[in-house]
Structure formats: structure tokens, C-alpha cells
Amino acid sequence: MSSCDxxxxxxxxxCSVLETDALDELNRIGRRKNVRRGETVIWxxxxxxxxxxxIDGMLKLTTATGDGREMIVGxxxxxDFIGRPFGASSSNSVTALTDAQxxxxxxxxxxxxxxxxxxxxxxxxxxxxxxxxxxxxWMLLLGRxxxxxxxxxFLIEMSKRLGGRACExxxxxxxxxxxxxxxxxxxxxxxxxxxxxxxxxGRLRDAGMILTPDRRTIEITDWAGLEHESxxx
Amino acid sequence: MSSCDxxxxxxxxxCSVLETDALDELNRIGRRKNVRRGETVIWxxxxxxxxxxxIDGMLKLTTATGDGREMIVGxxxxxDFIGRPFGASSSNSVTALTDAQxxxxxxxxxxxxxxxxxxxxxxxxxxxxxxxxxxxxWMLLLGRxxxxxxxxxFLIEMSKRLGGRACExxxxxxxxxxxxxxxxxxxxxxxxxxxxxxxxxGRLRDAGMILTPDRRTIEITDWAGLEHESxxx
DNA sequence: CGATTCTTTGACACCTATCAATCTTAGTGG
DNA sequence: CCACTAAGATTGATAGGTGTCAAAGAATCG
Lengths: 233, 233
Known about the structure:
The structure is a homodimer. By secondary structure, the first copy, chain A, is an alpha+beta fold. Chain A folds into two domains: 136 residues, Jelly Rolls (Sandwich); 84 residues, Winged helix-like DNA-binding domain superfamily/Winged helix DNA-binding domain (Arc Repressor Mutant, subunit A, Orthogonal Bundle), CATH 1.10.10. In chain A, strands 1-8-3-6 form a four-stranded antiparallel β-sheet. In chain A, strands 2-7-4-5 form a four-stranded antiparallel β-sheet. The structure holds a DNA duplex.
């Protein structure tokens, strides 16, 4: 029995398009790997020797300036694919936000496998196109939105992402959810400072739009108000 | 003789991976289209009925907030691919920055063709991965760099892009080049206002790092200085 | 329970946006 | 061809939003 049979994301990860034989073959070149929160799996600028499926947990993709300013350019969820196939060195680091479980392949073995399985490449293409759309949407937020709009947009986005991911299928946006991010990491996603994020969250709380029972959980109590905030601070 | 035989970018566009038969077939479902500077080819939110290869000219990809603030999220050059294949509606508009020539396909016909030609999908995947890297690099600029750093980074990027595109192959960064962008469009790429862009260009000129013989052409006279500016305003 | 880390809150400064005026360039019609 | 007009770019003055610096308050972990 291949370990794919017990995989939590076998129906959602890119492998889901593969036939049994191909899945067996892929299983032979992959291996499970557990990583602890905070552990970095891929380093920016590295030769990026690995790619992986995310089985469980969340990870951040980051880039940094020469003098250490950091930006989170993506977040991955279970069933997402990480790493940079096909020859380029990785342009960002990948670090676990929570304890996580990966299904890891060497880049070269994955590249070879993918080229012989067009269905897999098609699936990867569709996901990459989706990631590109998402990245470009985020560029609008970073380039043109105020701090107030950014924080409100972020809460709405996280609510949708965290609410719609259950294995039972999409459940819609969650009114209440736990952020897997510190204030610093939130700031690194939004292109702000921790102080500004903190103040904006306080403002939304004072305005009665959200509750913050503890510093990691958010409860949205006024969707209309929050959505209004997300489009004109 | 198919029109592909006379195509300016036949060796660089995604079609370059196709065999003769496949190229003929693709040629049958595509058509040439000339667009004038300022003309919009694809509208944000549309069903995105077309995709295309850029044969000549440059175009911008844009998204906008509900109240009209605009952001340029990408620029395309000859041999680039535009549009959103595979079912999603387009998340950005595509507008010509210069007069341009396209090789247009209906999305549905292109989708069908691509699925039967894995080599084409592979090429598209590689390009999309590259675009994603580029978009994420830009997120660092938008989220973490000062106006001075942004403008300097922009000039360096444009120099490399415009210098390295000749059909004879890469020629390296150009010391002198003509921006296909107005100040407003430059601001829309950098997440700044026209006034700030103008002031930063003036500052670089006063510092002797660039010359601005007319408002569209830039000459870089101090690469080391400009590169220094791009990393700590 | 103490120490460390993270977060919040406050005071202040600076960068960039905004508003406004001038100057330049490009386009148009006489 | 030139004046006129409109659009784009520059320059200046001002104000507001965020960053920075600093301190105090929670939460986490040993």
C-alpha cells in the first residue's frame, strides 16, 4: 500500500489527476517530511533542490531586501504545491507558520516525472495561473490601498481562506477564525508595520466590526462595515 | 504558406515548441489583430473570451479599485502571452501602451488546442512560473521600498527589459532607452503619484545618475549609484 | 513565578499624497 | 506655419498618514 492511500489531501493535491500506476511511481520518488513551526524548508536564492505538496499546515513564502526588510509574498494551505520546478533558483524562502507535513520530491526527479505526465503539468499550470491572479490582486492592495483598507481586506481574505478549506468542502467565509500569523507576519503581508496593524485592528474593534477575544482569533461581527472599510479606508 | 512563417516572434513565442503540423493547426484557429495605442483588448472581470500572443508592441495589465484607483500589475513585450486560459474570468484589463500587433485566439479554441499539445502547456507553465516570480518580486518593492528605491529599481528593470529584447538575442541592459510609459503609468506601476515619480526622477538627475533628454527617454550615467539607490533610498 | 517575547499604546518626525500653479509638449484648426 | 488649446509634466506649499522610537501591558514558556 502506498502512502498516498492514506494521504489527507489525495483528492485535492495535484496528484489527484494521476492514474493508479502513475501515482505509484510518484509515490516512489516522494517522501513524507514533518516540519516544525518556524522551520524553513526552502531558502531564497538557493538552487531550490526540492518541491513538495503541502499535506497539512500552513507555510509562508517570503522575499527580503538586502538590508533585511521582509515581505510575505504568499501563503500556502493543505493541498497546495510549493517550490519552483523547472530549473530556476527559488526566488523566495518557504517557512512553516504552523507545524506542517509535506510530501517532498527532489526537483530533478519531479521535473522528469512531470514532463512525462501532461495531466499533472496541466493541473500545475491551472494552479500557477490562479496563484498569479492572486499575486496580482495583492499588488493592487500593496500599491493603492490605505492601511485601513489593507487590514480590512486582509481579514476578509483570511476569513474566506480559512473558512472554505475544510475537507467536507467549502463552508463559506468563517465569522470566527484563528490567524496563524503574528502581528509581525501580518505586517509583512500587508506592507505595514506591526504598530499600524495593531492600531487598525484596535480601530475596527472600537468601531464594533470585529471582536478580538485573544490576539490570534478574530470574529467578524459586521461584514458590511468591514467590506466598506476594505474599499475606502 | 501560413502566416506563422512570417511571424516576427515565431522563434520566441510559445508556438516555437510546436511541430509543423501543430503549428498549421494553431494557425487555422488564430488571427492577426492590430491595436492602437490606448486600445483595451481585454476588460477586467470580463469572461475573457480571448487569449493572444504579442507579436509586436507593449501592453499593460491593470486592476482597479471600486473607486477608480488603478494599478499596473504587469507589462508584456513581444513574444509574451496574454489572457487567462482555462475557464476563469480575467482578473485584469489589457491595454496597449504602444501600437501593437497580436495573434488572437478565442479562449475556448486555444484551451482545446493546448490540452492536446502538452509541449505547449509545458511552455506556458514555464512562462507562468516566471511571471509569478516576477510578480512576487514586485510585491517586495510595493510593500517595503521607499519612493526613491522604487524609482531606481524601476529604471534598472526597464533598462534590462528594453535592452535585452532585440531579435538578435540579449544585448544586456541599455544605458539609454525610451519609456513607453507616461508619468501616470509609471506611478501606476510603482504605487506612487505622478508628483512623487517626477520629483524622484528630478533628484536622480540632479545627483548626476541619469539624464532625461526628453520626457520619455532615460539615460543611465551612473549604474553603481542607481543600484545603490534601489536598495536604500 | 520570573523571564522573555509579543502586543498595545503614545509622542513625534518624516515621507508621500494632496492641492495648486506654472511650464512644457503635443495636437488642432485657422 | 503659427497661434491656440488641451494634455502632460514639473515645481511648490501644505497636510495627513505611517513609520520610528520608546515605554508599558499581556501572553507564553520555562
